[in-house]
């Protein structure tokens, strides 16, 4: 047999039909659904008199619109259109008999955090969701990507997706990371190196010692932002850490089934001589704690750098940099560490897991946030929140002056009331710094949870290593 | 998906070029839970004033065009964003055919997914059809997909081209889901095989 990549192996195991032109029906093992991109898809099923093909493989949870304030049980905290979208999901989940975690359930949270936490996401699976950050699940060695509303309906009705195969790209991070450098710094640095279109047409497999060394949480952070690099999906081969994470999760296999699953999962790696269409290598030691300065996730610089000048760029990037700097209100040559911030957001499917909260709390312990800074922690799920309370992290956040919120997407996309005011500058652990992403005219700097915590303490973009 | 075979109906003239998806359905209507029901907001900003009152000068508000099933439009119809809400709104209003010299690519494809036939014709033909549409409710145009013709109320016939696969889907009301369901046997066979190989999934 010819050598295969991990992507090849998962792909081959899921082709239900292949047409002569290479168009395939890819069978979908897990379909995650949230309230914003699914209502029309469910309505389409109703209008055509169709059922959900595999309700048992379909998991729904509201996350994008839900308020994260403590009083959210009170429906009046939601705007009407948001409430209607959430209620539609309630009804659709019930009518079509899919698994559902309503707002009132402690297991509710961001769809990409709930999936792994509940053991829905397992190695070797195909996972889709009407959300681009579905790539997160690739951390388990699952082929996972975002789809549009028509495709959501297609998967609901047929449990397959019409697909053509992507190319294989290997991103290797060699060696060890330096202190203060995290998974977020890896993933941002990769995007900084390849650009937001660098992964277009590819499925990326992340590998190398620095990736192996990451926890499952860290690996999810890395894969989460594969989409910001333009890739269709990001993957990491499953290993003992992956298996240990999955073991005992509510929907993970048990007993003999676990053994059978494990035997297959252990074959899920890229063969030695597998063909790669593109290879990128970064040295772990070269990666610094980074922040974004502009309005594209590729606008990444080490925290010790200065704001760039449009003259540093060529071609179309010159104009883009001018526009970014204007929007961000930054002057070329300013040390990034002199940039003051107004708000701090710790959360999202990129960095809303327990390890992220631990990293932020470690920086905040015994400290207070800078006067005038508005800071919030939005745990990625109700269970992350409960665990953080148990570990005493919640107290650290609260004592430092952070708001301690309920689970949801919150200020990652500002579809609920958690928004920046025009001109407000935010140190954020989320994944997109587009214009207006966190609120009209809001300014976003992406960074790791530890860096965001450091910024909260000093009121400026800060090198976390100085607080360690 | 609705089939499209043959349609005889009123055509609304919209000689504007570059009618974009923002005009077709403004962004405030995207936070909806429905694909249907968008028809009342079709061309919202041109159709209503700020208080929600109908603008009597807008073509679809005129008595003779309220029941239009066809739009004859200026160049480059449907440019802008990829929102599927645009064809949803058009279809929901009751229009299932748009004729122009050119369409934006994504919108063009979205139409076929939603039972709408977009027809591309040369400028001279569109000019004739525009004039015919301007005659109002008494001038009914006929669009015949099997024959690939548009016939004016005066009996003038224009032949149009359409991708044979897309034509097949539209004639049979097959959307992607319909087509995939034709392969249901393959899916079932795969499912059985996968369930044996990976029963934990
Ligand atoms: S946290 Fe942000 S990126 Fe993640 S699913 Fe929610 S809105 Fe999307």
TrEMBL record, chain A:
Q: In which pathway does it act?
A: Amino-acid biosynthesis; L-leucine biosynthesis; L-leucine from 3-methyl-2-oxobutanoate: step 2/4
Paste the cofactor note. Answer: Binds 1 [4Fe-4S] cluster per subunit.
Q: Which SUPFAM superfamilies match?
A: Aconitase iron-sulfur domain
Report the EC number(s), separated by commas if there are several.
4.2.1.33
Q: Where does [4Fe-4S] cluster bind?
A: 349, 409, 412
Q: Which UniProt keywords apply?
A: 4Fe-4S, Amino-acid biosynthesis, Branched-chain amino acid biosynthesis, Iron, Iron-sulfur, Leucine biosynthesis, Lyase, Metal-binding
| Keyword presence, Iron | yes
Where the record annotates domain Aconitase/3-isopropylmalate dehydratase large subunit alpha/beta/alpha, the positions are: 8-459
Q: Which GO terms describe its molecular function?
A: 3-isopropylmalate dehydratase activity; 4 iron, 4 sulfur cluster binding; metal ion binding
Q: Which GO terms describe its biological process?
A: L-leucine biosynthetic process
Q: What is the required cofactor set for this protein?
A: [4Fe-4S] cluster
**CDD domains reported for this sequence:** IPMI
Which reaction equation describes what this protein catalyses? (2R,3S)-3-isopropylmalate = (2S)-2-isopropylmalate
Which InterPro entries is this protein grouped with?
3-IsopropMal_deHydase_lsu (IPR004430), Acnase/IPM_dHydase_lsu_aba_1/3 (IPR015931), Acoase/IPM_deHydtase_lsu_aba (IPR001030), Aconitase_4Fe-4S_BS (IPR018136), Aconitase_4Fe-4S_dom (IPR036008), IPM_dehydratase_rel_enz (IPR050067), IPMI_cat (IPR033941)
**Pfam families (UniProt xref):** Aconitase
Is Transcription found in the keyword set?
Answer: no
**Family assignment?**
Belongs to the aconitase/IPM isomerase family. LeuC type 1 subfamily.
Cite the NCBIfam families for this sequence. leuC (TIGR00170), PRK05478.1 (NF004016), PRK12466.1 (NF009116)
What is the annotated role of this protein in its UniProt record? Catalyzes the isomerization between 2-isopropylmalate and 3-isopropylmalate, via the formation of 2-isopropylmaleate.
Per UniProt, subunit arrangement is: Heterodimer of LeuC and LeuD.
Give the protein name, as stated in the record: 3-isopropylmalate dehydratase large subunit
The organism of origin for this protein: Seohaeicola zhoushanensis
Automatic annotation (TrEMBL), chain B:
Query: What is this enzyme's catalytic activity, as reactions?
Result: (2R,3S)-3-isopropylmalate = (2S)-2-isopropylmalate
Q: Give every Aconitase A/isopropylmalate dehydratase small subunit swivel domain span.
A: 1-123
Q: What class of enzyme is it?
A: lyase
Domain of life (superkingdom): Bacteria
Q: Which Pfam families match?
A: Aconitase_C
What are its GO biological-process terms? L-leucine biosynthetic process
Which purpose does this protein serve, as stated in its record? Catalyzes the isomerization between 2-isopropylmalate and 3-isopropylmalate, via the formation of 2-isopropylmaleate.
Q: Name one GO cellular component term.
A: 3-isopropylmalate dehydratase complex
Oligomeric state and interaction partners are given as: Heterodimer of LeuC and LeuD.
What the record says about family reads:
Belongs to the LeuD family. LeuD type 1 subfamily.
The pathway where this protein functions is: Amino-acid biosynthesis; L-leucine biosynthesis; L-leucine from 3-methyl-2-oxobutanoate: step 2/4
The name of this protein is 3-isopropylmalate dehydratase small subunit
What are the EC numbers? 4.2.1.33
* Key words, A-Z: Amino-acid biosynthesis, Branched-chain amino acid biosynthesis, Leucine biosynthesis, Lyase
State a single Gene Ontology molecular function: 3-isopropylmalate dehydratase activity
């Amino acid at each position: 047999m010819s050598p295969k990549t991990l992507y090849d192996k998962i792909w081959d195991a899921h082709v239900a039909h292949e047409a002569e032109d290479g168009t395939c029906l890819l069978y979908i093992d897990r379909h995650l659904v949230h309230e914003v991109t699914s209502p029309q898809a469910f309505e389409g099923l109703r209008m055509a008199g169709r059922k959900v093909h595999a309700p048992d493989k379909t998991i729904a949870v509201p996350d994008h619109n839900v308020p994260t304030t403590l009083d959210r049980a009170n429906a009046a905290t939601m705007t009407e259109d948001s409430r209607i979208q959430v209620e539609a999901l309630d009804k659709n989940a019930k009518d079509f008999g899919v698994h559902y975690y309503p707002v009132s359930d402690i297991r509710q949270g961001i769809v990409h955090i709930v999936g792994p936490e509940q053991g829905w996401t397992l190695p070797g699976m195909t996972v889709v969701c009407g959300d681009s950050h579905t790539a997160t699940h690739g951390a388990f060695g699952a082929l996972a990507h975002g789809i549009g509303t028509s495709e959501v309906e297609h998967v609901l009705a047929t449990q397959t997706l019409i697909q053509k195969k992507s190319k294989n790209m290997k991103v290797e991070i060699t060696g060890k990371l330096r202190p203060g450098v995290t998974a977020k710094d890896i993933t941002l640095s990769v995007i900084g190196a390849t650009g937001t279109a660098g992964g277009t047409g590819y499925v990326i497999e992340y590998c190398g010692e620095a990736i192996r060394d990451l926890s499952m949480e860290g690996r999810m952070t890395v894969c989460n932002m594969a989409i910001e690099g333009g890739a269709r999906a990001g993957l990491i081969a499953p290993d003992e850490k992956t298996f240990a994470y999955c073991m005992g999760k509510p929907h993970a296999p048990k007993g003999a089934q676990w053994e059978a699953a494990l035997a297959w999962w252990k074959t899920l790696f890229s063969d030695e001589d597998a063909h790669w269409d593109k290879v990128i290598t970064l040295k772990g030691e070269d990666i610094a704690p980074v922040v974004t300065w502009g309005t594209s996730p590729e606008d990444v610089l080490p925290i010790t750098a200065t704001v760039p000048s449009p003259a540093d760029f060529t071609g179309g990037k010159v104009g883009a940099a001018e526009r970014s700097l204007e929007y961000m209100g930054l002057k070329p040559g300013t040390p990034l560490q002199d940039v003051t911030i107004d708000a701090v957001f710790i959360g999202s499917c990129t960095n809303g897991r327990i390890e992220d909260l631990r990293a932020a709390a470690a920086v905040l312990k015994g400290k207070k946030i800078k006067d005038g800074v508005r800071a919030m922690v939005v745990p990625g799920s109700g269970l992350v929140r409960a665990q953080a309370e148990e570990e005493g992290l919640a107290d650290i956040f609260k004592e430092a002056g952070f708001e301690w919120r309920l689970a949801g997407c919150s200020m990652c996309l500002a579809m609920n009331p958690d928004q920046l005011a025009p001109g407000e500058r935010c140190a954020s652990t989320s994944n997109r710094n587009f214009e207006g992403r966190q609120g009209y005219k809001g300014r976003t700097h992406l960074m790791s949870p530890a860096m965001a915590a450091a910024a909260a303490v000093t009121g400026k973009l800060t090198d976390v290593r100085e607080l360690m | 998906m609705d089939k499209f075979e043959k349609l005889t109906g009123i055509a609304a003239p919209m000689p504007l070029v570059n009618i974009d998806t923002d005009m077709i359905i403004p962004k405030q209507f995207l936070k909806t839970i429905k694909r249907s029901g968008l028809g009342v907001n079709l061309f919202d900003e041109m159709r209503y004033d700020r208080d929600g009152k109908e603008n009597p000068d807008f073509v679809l508000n005129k008595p003779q065009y309220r029941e239009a099933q066809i739009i004859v439009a200026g160049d480059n119809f449907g440019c802008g964003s990829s929102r599927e809400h645009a064809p949803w709104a058009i279809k929901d209003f009751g229009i299932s055919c748009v004729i122009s010299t050119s369409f934006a690519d994504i919108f063009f494809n979205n139409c076929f997914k939603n039972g709408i036939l977009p027809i591309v014709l040369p400028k001279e033909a569109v000019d004739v059809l525009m004039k015919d549409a301007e005659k109002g409710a008494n001038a009914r145009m006929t669009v015949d997909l099997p024959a690939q013709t548009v016939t004016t109320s005066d009996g003038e016939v224009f032949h149009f081209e359409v991708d044979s696969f897309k034509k097949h889907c539209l004639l049979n009301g097959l959307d992607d889901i319909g087509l995939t369901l034709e392969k249901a046997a393959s899916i079932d066979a795969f499912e059985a095989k996968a369930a044996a190989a990976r029963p934990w999934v």
